[in-house]
């Protein structure tokens, strides 16, 4: 492996660690408690990470940051769902363009929203209650407004940060 390849790989690893830390902070410390957990804007940094980094690195930052947030903020029961949901969320976005905020990445917010609502609601209805019932699913779906706020806040963070970074030509630097 050449020095240039090593340098590029180190940059990706460093950015993965940085995004893991940012996702953790924006999830665990900048949040609003809700009925079953909390609402946060950390997903916006998952979107940003996935728009900048190659897929394996983006998935790693999403999973590490999200799982650490759940585990260290008192909600370890959510870690299995978070690992799957955040990994899949990262996969909706693409780093293939020379810009962060693209039509494709903006459209990726929609399946991310559906996955967040359906994934966490199903996990709550099946895994946390330990028995599936219509009542458990209905109770879990009652969290939908909080998830919608989470996606709206995350989307706003992603778009604002992405547009600012696009103006600076940040993607060309990594």
From TrEMBL:
It comes from the Bacteria. Keywords: Membrane, Transmembrane, Transmembrane helix. InterPro entries: CHP04002, ECF_substrate-spec-like. Signal peptide: none annotated. Gene3D superfamilies: 1.10.1760.20. The chain crosses the membrane at residues 13-32, 106-126, 146-165. Pfam families: ECF-ribofla_trS (PF07155). The keyword Hydrolase does not apply. GO terms for cellular component: membrane. PANTHER family: UPF0397 PROTEIN BC_2624-RELATED (PTHR37815), UPF0397 PROTEIN SPR0429 (PTHR37815:SF3). This is TIGR04002 family protein. The lineage of its organism: Bacteria, Bacillati, Bacillota, Clostridia, Eubacteriales.
